[in-house]
Design goal:
It contains five helices and ten strands. The chain is α+β, with helices and mostly antiparallel strands. The chain folds into two domains: about 10-80, 434 Repressor (Amino-terminal Domain) (Orthogonal Bundle); about 105-195, Jelly Rolls (Sandwich). A six-stranded antiparallel beta sheet has the order 1-2-3-10-5-8. Helix 1 (about 10-30) crosses helix 3 and helix 2 (about 35-45) crosses helix 4. The termini are far apart. About 30% of the residues are buried.
Length: about 200
């Protein structure tokens, strides 16, 4: 089912940009491993029908789905998301063209406003979280650091057993090589900018 934004086609358009790239990559890797749709579904735990829809650019998968497929294909999530197209001299994206990822619960969306080709070492997102929304992420590679600046509302960030509340105008930096969770525990939407440095120096 296509992802739709209430009263707007922006989210759907952005999701299609990402899904088009992702679908081609998933299909190319699946065939390279000589896997059928059924075999990839069995190895990843993602339904065969969903994989087929992803490859045909008919759905926008959640982060959890992308992670399961990347694990089954022995590739990092970052590499699966990266585009292989030649780089333009200049590139301008409208709001409708901006690729979008969704959290498992569908209440947190990450607009990829950074260059998708740099996602293996630098990720830059515009984050919007509906009330009750939760983005639960597994730890990235050792030494990775995430910086989150709240633009409006407030977010709760959990890293391991530590919990911090980040209010409007505040920034939090944390090791994201541990499991980390971002939640909107308030009754109003929240917005933030998030930068993830995946190849930062190892922090002691």
């Amino acid at each position: 089912m296509a992802v739709k934004d209430r009263g707007s086609n922006t989210l759907e358009s952005g999701a299609q940009i990402l899904t088009g790239q992702l679908g081609k990559t998933i299909q190319r890797l699946r065939k390279a491993y000589n896997l059928s749709l059924s075999e990839l579904a069995e190895q990843s735990g993602v339904a065969k029908s969903i994989i087929s829809q992803i490859e045909r650019n008919e759905t926008n998968p959640t982060l959890a789905t992308i992670w399961r497929l990347s694990q089954a294909l022995d590739m990092s999530v970052e590499r699966v998301l990266a585009s292989e197209d030649d780089s333009p001299v200049i590139e301008k994206l409208t709001r409708a063209d901006t690729p979008i990822l969704l959290s498992e619960d569908g209440k947190v969306r990450l607009s990829i406003i950074g260059w998708i080709k740099t996602v293996e070492w630098l990720q830059y997102y515009d984050v919007t979280a509906e009330p009750g929304g939760e983005l639960d992420s597994e730890g990235h590679q050792r030494g990775a650091v995430e910086c989150l600046t709240v633009i409006s509302g407030a977010l709760e960030v959990t890293v391991g057993e530590m919990i911090e509340t980040v209010k409007e105008g505040e920034t939090i930096r944390y090791r994201c090589d541990h499991r980390h969770i971002i939640r909107n525990i308030n009754d109003v939407p929240a917005r933030a900018f998030m930068v993830c440095l995946l190849k930062a120096a190892v922090l002691e």
